What does this fold into?
Amino acid sequence: MSYSHSSQLIDESSSIQPQDKVELPIPQPPTHFLTGNLFDINAAEFAESIYKLVKIYGPIFKLELPSRRLVIVSGYELFKDACDEARFEKTTLGNVEEVRNVLGDGLFTAKSDEKNWFVAHRTLMPSFGPLGIRKMFPQMMDIASQLILKWDRMGPEHGIVTSDDFTISSLPCFGGAFELTAIVQIGV
It folds into this structure.
């Protein structure tokens, strides 16, 4: 399987037109026999490992792991592009497919063309759409303030692992969104 992305290199003074695209290969760290890029990622410091690779390879790069290939995108524009539902669709591969075999189609295991995916999507969008997020803003501010106080109490000599703190603090914030949606059983 090969990966590539299109970049438009347009200069107003050149004769290159917007429809002319230059295909560039997606960068990748050198792979190792059998392990691929497994040792380029430190599981204990996953986010930091990815950030280091972004600094080296740029905002889009691929990783080859023993069980799968990943394309990593960073930055708002690339992430927004990758989330464009008109161009890309949700897939159920790897572990998700195994869970699907046991549990059937549900919120995270339904394929994008199945009825239960549409039911889950319509159920969650009011909570996680722009208006739902706006309603969560007071909770977000409160949690962010508590997080800053926690970091301040730990002192300047203490390292902060933001990925862990953000993961732990997201549940109270987004948990409120599930109060209304948790009663809907998907896949039943």
In short: Residues 130-154 form the longest helix (25 residues). Helices lie at 46-57, 76-82, 95-103, 115-128, 130-154, 162-181. Residues 1-18, 177-188 have pLDDT under 50 and may be disordered.
